[in-house]
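REQUEST ID: PR-0412
SUBMITTED BY: lab tech R.K.
PRIORITY: routine
TASK: structure prediction, single protein chain
INPUT:
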Amino acid sequence: MFALNYRRTHSIGVSLGIILMITIPFVVVGVLFIESHYLKKKSRPAT
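STATUS: complete
OUTPUT:
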């Protein structure tokens, strides 16, 4: 993915920016999912 963008734009900064714009939403959703899981686990009474 990075090489494809780099060949098209010939700029490392632009290529990294494009990759980050694509991947950051997935990272944020993953972090929120993990946090939600631990909050639910913490609030549930132990059996």
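NOTES: The chain has one domain: 2-43.
REVIEWED BY: pending
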